[in-house]
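#struct-help
A.M.: can someone run this one for me? Single chain, 400 residues.
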Amino acid sequence: MTMKQNYLIKKVGSILLLVLVFACVEPIEIESQTYEDTLVVEAIITDQLEYQEVQLRRTFSLEDSGPVQERNAAVIVRSENDIYEFTETEPGQYVSIEPFQALEGRSYTVEITSKDGRTYYSESEQLPQRAELKELYAERSMYEGEDGVAILVDLEGPESTSGYYKYDYTETYKIISPFSFPADLIIRNGEFIEIPKTKEEKTCYVTQESSDILLANTSFQAGNDVDGFLVKFMNSRNFKTAYRYSILVRQYSLSSEAFSFYETLEDFSDSESLFSQNQLGLISGNIISETDSNEKVIGYFAIAGVSSKRIFFDFEDIYEPFEFSPASHVECEVEIPDMTPQALPVLGEKLDNGILKYIGFSMVSVEGGTGAKKVHRFTKAECVDCTLFGENVAPDFWEE
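D.P.: on it. C-alpha cells below:
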C-alpha cells in the first residue's frame, strides 16, 4: 500500500550553530562570517493545565561543542493582571513554579532578565482556535521505496479559518536482550564464582523525544481537515518496532505568524549551505531587547492549543506472521576467551568493568573423546543488560 502524499511533511533537524535561528521582532541579517553571542528563546505556552517551559540558550560558534545554556535568568509570563514565575530546573530550562494554562481571549507576553541585568520581552500573543487530533494510527506503507510502518494523523480543523499546525512526539518501545543468564560471573584467585543477579536485564523500555519539527497547514486547500498526515516512518528493519511500540503525538495549533517562523527554519535546514549569506537571508520573530534596541535576539514566544493521542502496536500487528524476523537493537557475537592463567586477569577485568557479560557454559568433548569440559561463554554487555539502553520498569502508561 502506498501512503497518501496529499500533505507536505516539513521536517527540521536540529539547527546548529548560529542557524538554530530563532529571530527577533525586527528582521535581522545573520552574518555567516562573524560570530555573535546572541540570546536564543524557545517557548510554546499551551492551553493544557501543566507546568509550562521556556528554554534559553546562547548561539555558539563552530569551535564550540554545542549550545551554551543561559543560566540564572529571571523568567515570567504575564497575562493581564496575572504573573506566572518560572524557576531554572536544569541549565537553560525554566519551568513555571505552578501549573497554568493559556485561556481564550487573553493576551500573554514573556519577560526575561538575564543574570547581567539585560531585559527582553515578546510581543503579546493570544491562543488560536484549537483543532482536534481526530485519529492517530499506524499502517504498513511504502515510503521512498522502502517497506515499513507509517504513523499517520487525521485532524478536524476549524470551519471558518485555515489551520496551522506543528507536531512533536514521544516514542516508547520495548527491547529484549538477545542473551540472558540468571547470574553474573566474577573471577577471584583463578576461581569462577557465579553471583545471582539482583536486577532485571532482559526486558526494558526506551523513551525518546522527537528532534524534528513537523508542520502542516490548510491554507492552500478547499477544506480545513487533514487526512493521512505522516508524522513518522520506520522501515521494516527498524528495531524500535521489533516487539511493542507506543507513540504519543502532540498537535499544536499555532497562529499563522508562529507557523511562518517555524516554516522559515525549515527553509534553512533545506539549504545547501547553512553558512551562505544568500541562504540565511532575513528571519522574523517576536522577541526584542528592552535594554538595547540594536541587540539581536533569536526566538519566538508562541501560544498554542494542544491536542494529543497515544497508540500501541506489536510487530505482528503490522507484518505478516513468519514473514521475516524483527531486527535486534544490538549486534552480538558469542565469545569463548582464552582461559589460561595468564589470560584470566584480563577476562576478570572486563567482567568487573562491565565490558563483557557471562551467558552460561556448555560442555564440549575434549580432544580424543576421553570426556567433556566446561566452556564458559561471554558476549558484550549490551547484548545482555538492556538497562544500558533504557529502563527495566514499564512506564505507568504502558499497556500490553
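A.M.: thanks! The radius of gyration is 27 Å.
D.P.: also worth noting: The longest helix spans residues 256-270.
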